[in-house]
Amino acid sequence: MHIHILGICGTFMGGLAIMAKQMGHHVTGSDQNVYPPMSTQLEEQGIALMKGYSPANLDPAPDLVVVGNAISRGNPEIEAVLNRGLAYTSGPQWLYCYVLKNTWVLAVAGTHGKTTTSSMLAWILESAGLKPGFLVGGVPLNFGVSARLGDGRFFVVEADEYDTAFFDKRSKFVHYRPRTAILNNLEFDHADIFPDLAAIQRQFHHLVRSIPGNGLVIAPETDETLTEVLRMGCWTPVEKTTLEETSENAVWRAEILTPDGGRFQLFHRGQPSGIVEWGLTGRHNVMNALSAIAAAHHAGVSPEEAAAALSSFKNVKRRLEVLACIDGITLYDDFAHHPTAIATTLQGLRARVNSARIIAVLEPRSNTMRMGVHADTIADSLKAADKSIIFQPDDLGWDAEQAIKGAESVTVCRSLDSIVELLAKDARPGDHLVFMSNGSFGGIHKKVEDALRRG
């Protein structure tokens, strides 16, 4: 079968392309922006890429067109698909019909931590010899790829609440029909498609409705927003996770043994069940680990096996990833783009580096950030850093200077060059520079690295 994918260079759609190729299909695709690392990964798989959208990309006519959710009516290629009467479907629907339908699906949903938790879960199952398939929104360093088919028994999927396609406005995750579902957390996000938190909760409840009675839901004990979702109706056993020693209801608990979360004791139903010692930081990652361990246990992996596997977990690219260390100055790349993720990432790093100076550099790039929904909480989210820089491009929908008024440690810069110049002058040995964006941030990481090397 010839499958053509619109929006192929997104992590999700690129993952579908890789799996379709592994299944023996002839795969082509188009995207407005064709650039590494996804373009390189796809070309290495022998997948033909077309830059830009054009009706000519559909010649010869494919057997099926898979449409990414970034594609809107008016796009010349989708207009040609419709006018020619070509068969088309959404990415999530294709994933279910061709990959997930006959597997044990383990889905990881939530506002934060989906990619990391999915990667942890896949690694635990892999370490237990279960050879899972997976599709995650990043590149787990233990695997080096964002997607694979596996042996057809278990499949781990990052379950995104974003909408499915221009013709299907349900959240992606309602298509996946998981047997095991992790609900990591829930806050307001994606303001471009959801009017309020209640609208997101309704979508999460649609997911809950699809989980069978002999399945499992895993959720944090203290997230009231998720508790409200489950109160809407739940027909599946629920296991709660916690870091609180006094908890009486949580099945899974962790006791953090080091300030940075680099070592913790696991408890299952009150019994010590293994110790994890790893390179990750922060309470949020310990909670992610609890969810992954609980999900793996549902699939038959003992807590002790899971704890041992996580001790060799290498994290995900762009999750506080060390890019370089130059004259004692450490540069990190991080995907955080929501105030909660920004705060927890910086708090975890603070616990690891103690009093060393942290400089956070933030690009407000997500649709929600650009709309200014979180403008009032940006300064607070950066408090764990000694100094912070917010990049304000000309087309940002709010005034960052006004938003940070009174925050003496936060600076606003209106060009990448000014940020590079500022860091090159100010950074000193022992500093930790954290670049935070859900995009490429204009290649600023390399520009700063080059400037520091020049001295």
UniProtKB/TrEMBL annotation:
<comment type="similarity">
    <text>Belongs to the MurCDEF family. Mpl subfamily.</text>
</comment>
<dbReference type="Pfam" id="PF01225">
    <property type="entry name" value="Mur_ligase"/>
</dbReference>
<keyword id="KW-0961">Cell wall biogenesis/degradation</keyword>
<keyword id="KW-0547">Nucleotide-binding</keyword>
<comment type="pathway">
    <text>Cell wall biogenesis; peptidoglycan recycling.</text>
</comment>
<dbReference type="Pfam" id="PF02875">
    <property type="entry name" value="Mur_ligase_C"/>
</dbReference>
<keyword id="KW-0436">Ligase</keyword>
<keyword id="KW-0132">Cell division</keyword>
<feature type="binding site">
    <location>
        <begin position="110"/>
        <end position="116"/>
    </location>
    <ligand>
        <name>ATP</name>
    </ligand>
</feature>
<dbReference type="InterPro" id="IPR036565">
    <property type="entry name" value="Mur-like_cat_sf"/>
</dbReference>
<keyword id="KW-0131">Cell cycle</keyword>
<dbReference type="InterPro" id="IPR013221">
    <property type="entry name" value="Mur_ligase_cen"/>
</dbReference>
<comment type="function">
    <text>Reutilizes the intact tripeptide L-alanyl-gamma-D-glutamyl-meso-diaminopimelate by linking it to UDP-N-acetylmuramate.</text>
</comment>
<dbReference type="Pfam" id="PF08245">
    <property type="entry name" value="Mur_ligase_M"/>
</dbReference>
<dbReference type="InterPro" id="IPR036615">
    <property type="entry name" value="Mur_ligase_C_dom_sf"/>
</dbReference>
<keyword id="KW-0573">Peptidoglycan synthesis</keyword>
<dbReference type="GO" id="GO:0106418">
    <property type="term" value="F:UDP-N-acetylmuramate-L-alanyl-gamma-D-glutamyl-meso-2,6-diaminoheptanedioate ligase activity"/>
</dbReference>
<feature type="domain" description="Mur ligase central">
    <location>
        <begin position="108"/>
        <end position="296"/>
    </location>
</feature>
<dbReference type="InterPro" id="IPR050061">
    <property type="entry name" value="MurCDEF_pg_biosynth"/>
</dbReference>
<dbReference type="InterPro" id="IPR000713">
    <property type="entry name" value="Mur_ligase_N"/>
</dbReference>
<dbReference type="InterPro" id="IPR004101">
    <property type="entry name" value="Mur_ligase_C"/>
</dbReference>
<keyword id="KW-0133">Cell shape</keyword>
<keyword id="KW-0460">Magnesium</keyword>
<feature type="domain" description="Mur ligase C-terminal">
    <location>
        <begin position="318"/>
        <end position="439"/>
    </location>
</feature>
<feature type="domain" description="Mur ligase N-terminal catalytic">
    <location>
        <begin position="2"/>
        <end position="95"/>
    </location>
</feature>
<protein>
    <recommendedName>
        <fullName>UDP-N-acetylmuramate--L-alanyl-gamma-D-glutamyl-meso-2,6-diaminoheptandioate ligase</fullName>
        <ecNumber>6.3.2.45</ecNumber>
    </recommendedName>
</protein>
<dbReference type="InterPro" id="IPR005757">
    <property type="entry name" value="Mpl"/>
</dbReference>
<keyword id="KW-0067">ATP-binding</keyword>
